[in-house]
Design goal:
alpha+beta, C8orf32 fold, Immunoglobulin-like, 2 domains, six-stranded mixed beta sheet, 18 strands, 35% helix, 29% strand, globular
Length: 339
């Protein structure tokens, strides 16, 4: 009996590691998506009513959460200028806990006022709204606080939590999602926001999610203990773009962004794909500070949905190296080739 119980616990822990969208491949989310689309433009003056409208005609918790998530991603704009202002003030007061607490209190009031009145917010507002609407639908949902890395993140100053996302419990398993990054892309030059839904952040693979999400609370990794990276490893990881979540199941190698090698050495890249691809679709982009170009990797191997390739660097220099799959930008690395 004890052995059976132990095996059951092991099975449960292994299942939780794999908690991702594939668990619901038997469901069709078209009805949930159509309800979210039909309610586009609804205001936030009555959140219980909005939650009811989004979920009351759906059968499963997964569909109900999907409708809520899709509505938030399609109706709430990312206020990048507000994010920058908050980031500046938090950095300014990071060594003065009293002033930092006072700023956080003041900012929360402004944040939620702008969310409710203008439907513009930052990650905290997205995560709050998803959780609140889920709560009204009797769905167990939590806000996860932590660190997030994108291509514009300055890791030299990344010493305070800068991102929030959600965990939702469906069929007794926890799943991760990021409504902020799923909703669209803010232009860092103009601060304008373009809605562009990315389904890859919905019930994402925890191991892929971990490449650029670092939760404060250990329980929200949803992976085995030995797979949890150190914060230093997180900061050194490659940059993943939104297309990575659409395209990749896993990012296996390289696990660091920067590489220092000698001439004629190779760098190895390994990925698990969501869908099959062809060798000619795999390209690397290069930028050495003087010119940019694209080329095929030195060697490519595709075995089902497993993609592995190597590239040999013959000339000394410093290179930004970008992976493209079917012309979509997936990830970025740097390679310094020196004698």
């Amino acid at each position: 009996m004890q052995k059976t119980f132990t095996l059951l616990l092991l099975f449960i822990s292994l299942v939780s590691v794999k908690a991702q969208i594939k668990d619901f491949s038997h469901l069709n989310f078209k009805k949930a998506d159509s309800i979210a689309l039909a309610l586009k433009g609804e205001n936030l003056t009555n959140l219980p009513e909005l939650s009811f409208k989004l979920t009351s005609n759906l059968k499963t918790d997964a569909e109900r959460f999907r409708a809520i998530y899709k509505w938030v991603c399609g109706n709430i704009a990312n206020d990048y200028s507000l994010y920058l202002k908050n980031d500046r003030q938090r950095q300014r007061f990071k060594n003065d806990s009293l002033k930092l607490d006072a700023w956080n209190t003041k900012f929360r009031t402004k944040l939620f006022s702008r969310l409710l009145k203008k439907k513009r917010t930052i990650c905290t507002g997205y995560a709050y709204l998803v959780k609140t609407l889920a709560d009204f639908a009797n769905l167990e949902c939590e806000i996860v606080q932590g660190f997030g890395r994108v291509s514009t993140t300055n890791i030299e100053t990344l010493d305070l939590p800068n991102h929030s996302w959600n965990a939702v419990k469906l069929n007794n398993k926890w799943y991760l999602c990021d409504p902020t990054w799923a909703s669209g892309i803010p232009n860092p030059k103009t601060n304008r926001f373009n809605f562009e839904y990315n389904d890859g952040f919905f019930l994402a693979n925890p191991k892929l999610f971990a490449v650029n999400h670092f939760p404060i609370e250990k329980r929200w990794w949803l992976t085995e203990d030995e797979e949890i990276p150190s914060f230093d490893a997180f900061l050194k990881a490659p940059v993943l773009y939104g297309n990575a979540y659409r395209t990749l199941e896993l990012h296996d190698a390289p696990q660091q962004m920067h590489h220092t090698i000698k001439p004629f050495e190779k760098v190895t890249f390994k990925y698990q794909l969501k869908n099959n691809t062809k060798i000619e679709k795999v390209k690397l982009g290069f930028d050495n500070g003087f010119s940019t170009w694209k080329d095929q990797p030195t060697s490519v191997s595709i075995n089902g949905k497993s993609l592995e390739f190597e590239h040999q660097f013959n000339q000394t220099g410093f290179y930004d190296v970008h992976l493209y799959l079917d012309d979509d930008l997936i990830s970025t690395y740097t390679v310094e080739v020196r004698k």
